[in-house]
Amino acid sequence: MNLKDLLDVSKDNSLSGQKWHMLRQSIVKRLLSAGNATIAEISSELQSSVPTVTKAVNELLQEGNVVDMGKITNSGGRRPSLYSINPTCAFFLGVEVGRTHMSIGLQDIKNEFISLDLRVPFALKNSQESLLEFCALINNYIEESSVEKKLIVGICINFSGRINSMEGFSYNYFFSENRPLTEIISEQLGLPVHLENDTRAMAFGEYCEGVVDDEQNIIFLNYSWGVAIGIMTDGKLYYGKSGYSGEFGHSTLFENEIICQCGKLGCLETEISGWSLVRQFKEALKEGKHSKIELNENEDLQHLDIISGAINLEDSLCIELVTRQSEKMGRYLSILLNIFNPDLLVIGGDFSQLGDFALLPIQSALKKHSLGLVNRDMKLKKSTLGHRVGVIGACCIVKEKMLSPFFK
Ligand SMILES: [Zn+2]
């Protein structure tokens, strides 16, 4: 039996068969969640006798799901063996979908990448053809990898916008009233599918593998084309009632008559975001300001060009615009700090590439506008995982789901 089936419900309906399956499943989940263990440790934690656990572990060894790591050193007596999950017996697939690119990666049980393709060109459109093309890209990726599909436990896909992870619906992309998107994609891929909001997955990626040390109450800012936050409380992702928490970018803060991407007027994103940065840059040029970035009439300028202009060209206009935005961002983040009093605020997304150009204005505005006691309690860090953060978060979420008693 492979690990994926082992984590599924038992096919043996007899009471003894069910109990035996549950014990083997519990041993696997114990080794996955808390790392390597001896038989005595497993027996004590699961409150099952040593001979019974020994028999179950031997079965798992024979199947190749568990490996013997050798004898541990102790102060004397007979040295027990340490057991671990076989890293080659289960894999997780993580996908992050952007407007023009997607990133995809396959991780083993120890969260090591087997393969990772960042920013593969893919034009995300709200059509059936685009969805089929998306599924075909994932299927090709699996076929070209060195891992058999049956060993992939599941896939987590991150989209921007409103995602109901519990029910599997995506409201901004590929929305279907009749069926959850998870079901439609699962049919195409032949794998269990989980959907996640992109910012929430990034927050979880930083928590599991990135800049987070032992902080448990975290706000992760995704400052990119759009703006959103991921919230973690007591080490758990916060979803809200239906999964729409974190839409910080659509707080209507300005009376500027600018229509936001969400359709409302004056959202935070209309003045602080990648897409508003592009507008501000074009307006500045029209007003007669100069930049080293040459702009043709038909050229599709991206916020990343302006960010790169600030970093690589030290272009004065680009620096002025990103600094001004970051200062404003700090001012509005201070509201969140006063409300949440987090241990840690992580600045992530494309703007985090700017380093001090973004961090210093944010930091000084936070100091200026948030309550002193709240600010003193909190650490400010820059995301360290770069473009990999979303895929890492997605893979960690699949692993987390697998360990949950409700995983199917
Ligand atoms: Zn909006």
UniProtKB/TrEMBL annotation:
Which UniProt keyword terms apply here? Answer: Kinase, Transferase
Q: Which family does it belong to?
A: Belongs to the ROK (NagC/XylR) family.
Give the GO molecular function terms: kinase activity
Alphabetical list of Pfam families matching this protein = ROK
Keyword Disulfide bond part of the UniProt annotation: no
Q: Which InterPro entries would you find in this protein's record?
A: ATPase_NBD (IPR043129), ROK (IPR000600), WH-like_DNA-bd_sf (IPR036388), WH_DNA-bd_sf (IPR036390)
**Protein name per Swiss-Prot or TrEMBL:** Sugar kinase of the NBD/HSP70 family, may contain an N-terminal HTH domain
